[in-house]
Amino acid sequence: MLPLLKAGFALLSLLELISSRPLTTTSPRLKLSEITHRIQQLNSGVQVPCNDTRVAQVAFTDRKLSEQELLCQAATALTEVTKCKNDYEPFIVNLQSLHGKTNCSLSHENEIYLRNFLPELGNFTQGMYRRLAASAAQ
């Protein structure tokens, strides 16, 4: 009986460890898809966690900036959300792995509420996903 309990406890501990870690994917398309899906999940709830938090606005429509720079800026903006860090950690991890930069410039001149930032990020990542899918199909 005791070995069975030990095995059960070990299994529960392992499951808790796995579920507490952010999902990491390898393909850029899967990462973009996961970001978009998580944004949709947050927006479908009653309220976006820390929705009144202000973050730096990222100019996702600025064609002078590379996609990697915009991803880096989005990750940097989200790292500044400290109250709900656990809710946004999976976004940050995936964004950082997509852009591969360690540093980027982000102006805090214009700020936006998180509840408005997330749909913009979702539109941007969805557009990137579509472009990647289209280029893979050719």
From TrEMBL:
<keyword id="KW-0075">B-cell activation</keyword>
<dbReference type="GO" id="GO:0005136">
    <property type="term" value="F:interleukin-4 receptor binding"/>
</dbReference>
<dbReference type="GO" id="GO:0005576">
    <property type="term" value="C:extracellular region"/>
</dbReference>
<dbReference type="GO" id="GO:0042113">
    <property type="term" value="P:B cell activation"/>
</dbReference>
<dbReference type="GO" id="GO:0008083">
    <property type="term" value="F:growth factor activity"/>
</dbReference>
<dbReference type="InterPro" id="IPR001325">
    <property type="entry name" value="IL-4/IL-13"/>
</dbReference>
<dbReference type="Pfam" id="PF00727">
    <property type="entry name" value="IL4"/>
</dbReference>
<dbReference type="InterPro" id="IPR009079">
    <property type="entry name" value="4_helix_cytokine-like_core"/>
</dbReference>
<dbReference type="GO" id="GO:0006955">
    <property type="term" value="P:immune response"/>
</dbReference>
<feature type="signal peptide">
    <location>
        <begin position="1"/>
        <end position="20"/>
    </location>
</feature>
<protein>
    <recommendedName>
        <fullName>Interleukin-4</fullName>
    </recommendedName>
</protein>
<dbReference type="InterPro" id="IPR002354">
    <property type="entry name" value="IL-4"/>
</dbReference>
<keyword id="KW-0732">Signal</keyword>
